[in-house]
Model the fold of this input.
Amino acid sequence: MSRDRDLLSVTGLVKHHHSTGGKVRAVDSVSFRVATGETLGLVGESGCGKSTLGRTLIRLHEPDEGSIVFDGMDITHLGRRALRPVRRHLQMVFQDPYASLNPRRSIEQILAEPFEVHAVGDRLDRRERVRALLARVGLRQDHAGRHPHEFSGGQRQRIAIARAIALEPKLIVCDEPVSALDVSIQAQIINLLRRLQRESGLSYVFISHDLSVIGHLADRIAVMYLGEIVEIASRSALWREPLHPYSQVLFSAIPIPAAPSQPRRHRVAMVGEPPSPIDPPSGCRFHTRCPYAMPRCREETPRLGTLSDGDDAQRRIACHLYEVE
Ligand code: SF4
Done:
């Protein structure tokens, strides 16, 4: 599997919502890349903007600023018609598959729809493709005639995944796809996503608040706080040594023991409540809860950069405790 080129490149992405309380700064100047065949995990507390970011990436939300380059094409401002051929390569799997599956349509109809929309094959050919999709996601052929309510949560997520892979996409944004499932079913869905990635070189942006889930899938992890990426690094580097104070808080709370070869984690305490994304704190947005906050942190926004004296070129961090380039 090739990981030598960027499939997705996001630069300075901004997405603000308007609510009755004012402008919600959901995604603020976010930049990252995803390579072909790679899984980027996006983690952070509920409300940190990771779902808005996921939806903006596939243009379900219109970006306010910045650029999204997918497979060599700038898709930031593509119109609906020009976006259509791109969409088949850029799919999304949601947390609640039931909400995204039309309850009145059979599984055969639901899975045939992507082929109909993109005019792939004739009726007979689509039927064959649906059968093949069911087999790929571990469902039986006779499931084709049933309706979404006849399936368990895990099976419904398999159907949603089958629909997402129908057109052989290059990237799938997975937004909390297992968080509504029991732990044993979570493992099955994660294994399915990993197998599909091995088979077809897919890339994933995998959004979750659950680090133990992210740890099973992600090659790299981006940590988000109040609409910004505060640290991005390989999974192993973050697991071994989270550097940003917010990453330290998140990783110290993982409810699984660290591997014997890894240093013992000490619980890092975070103070205060999450600030409102309508009126985020000045300077470093984490300064109101950071145990290491300095006067400078209230005034000056830290820049996301590579550690000046680090030997990990993949790790970038936004914190005044570190010199970055
Ligand atoms: Fe804490 Fe300051 Fe670093 Fe922000 S910049 S995480 S407040 S030390």
Observations:
- Residues 244-245, 284, 286-287, 290, 292-294, 297, 302, 319-321 surround iron/sulfur cluster (CB under 6 Å).
